[in-house]
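To the team - nicotinamide-adenine-dinucleotide complex, inputs and output below.
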Amino acid sequence: MEILKIGVMGARRGSSFMRTLQYMEEAKVVAICEVDDAALEENEYVTDEMKIYRDYDEFVHSGLDAVILCNFFHEHAPYAIKAFEAGVAVLSETTAAASLGECVQLVEKCEEHQGTYILLANCPYFTAVHAMKKRIDEGKMGRVLYGEAEYLHYTHVEDGSKIKKDTDLNNLHWRQVLPSNMYNMHTLGTLMYVTGSVPMKVSCKMIRRTDFYKSPRKLTDCNGSVVITEMSNGAVFNTTGCSGYAPTSKWYRLACEQGTMETKRYDKREDKLIVAGLDGNSEEMSPSLEEAGLVKEGDGFNLSAYEKSSHGGIDYHLTRAFIRVLLKKEKPFLDVYRSAALSAAGILGWYSALSDGKELRIPDFTKKEERDAVRDDFRTPFAKRYSDLQMPCRLDEKDKFVL
Ligand SMILES: NC(=O)c1ccc[n+]([C@@H]2O[C@H](COP(=O)([O-])OP(=O)(O)OC[C@H]3O[C@@H](n4cnc5c(N)ncnc54)[C@H](O)[C@@H]3O)[C@@H](O)[C@H]2O)c1
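Output:
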């Protein structure tokens, strides 16, 4: 069997995949692209067999089958496009693209080069979350009507170095700028996967907290978001993005025609599922990996590798899904079109927040005429330098924004 040669870009989050890929027979990490020596030194999974690159072009042309993009949040699309051009498959961290124009470029370059693309969203692989998907797919719940997904990450309030003087505004980290609704793969992305739906319309309100919006570590002035999304299956979802209040946790709920399912709040492993029927009686379940549809007989599942993998094993399921896609055994749900729609829900959600919560339509990226309508819109709230910002990243500057 030919072993797939994987390159990891960004050695911080990338270390999770290096850890998980140690246990995979079908693929191995042969190259890393990283410019920060500290990130390499702190990464315990770097071995002498891996070649280290500082230059992405050299890295992507070094004979790789696939790259795992774990670089800065808002810079994945240009590197994914270079990978398509080099004939290399892409597993991309989120967000897929940071502007609507970049979403179009990503989709069209993927089409042009018949590229392989999968978004790195790991929360769909929580046992309880996957069990929800299985129950829906088996027709046990009827149509999905309403969904909620909550991702709270309090520690981000303290992330980033202090912005002390004007010159510091030339070296901003994305976590200091991020409108929280745009970090949406753990919430909206997960509900898309579970329900097989795509976002069609979005409106968004932001939450502000005095100590957060006055924090010298932040440029954005919002620490939370409420995102209402109308989906292609007619359901409406209410999601948080990555909201900066305590306690750090994730939680999912789906109200369906035949009852309601939810994960257990503050259960870090997300392996308990509560199902309530129309009569109001509820049952707490602990589905096995098989019952959740995550493991099938004879599919090569390795329990010890799963237990040793990062994020409680969900990165193991995600990496296995990626390998199945590379080996052409399955098609990814979060393909380039749906991943672009998820990013667009984040971008347009921020446009909406700056427009007092106005509901906005999300393009269908499979249709050229819908791509044409947004292909020249490269506005994004991210920039390394404050002076390069093309649109506000603070709600208190919303008057500067024209829809
Ligand atoms: N799904 C998850 O559970 C999860 C968890 C953490 C982070 N992430 C995602 O991972 C990505 C990275 O986040 P992070 O937490 O690792 O922090 P980060 O964004 O600070 O790290 C990015 C790393 O990429 C390197 N890098 C960036 N551009 C480069 C270039 N052109 N050439 C070489 N190296 C380059 C940087 O030096 C840095 O070490 C983000 O998109 C984030 O959303 C996902």
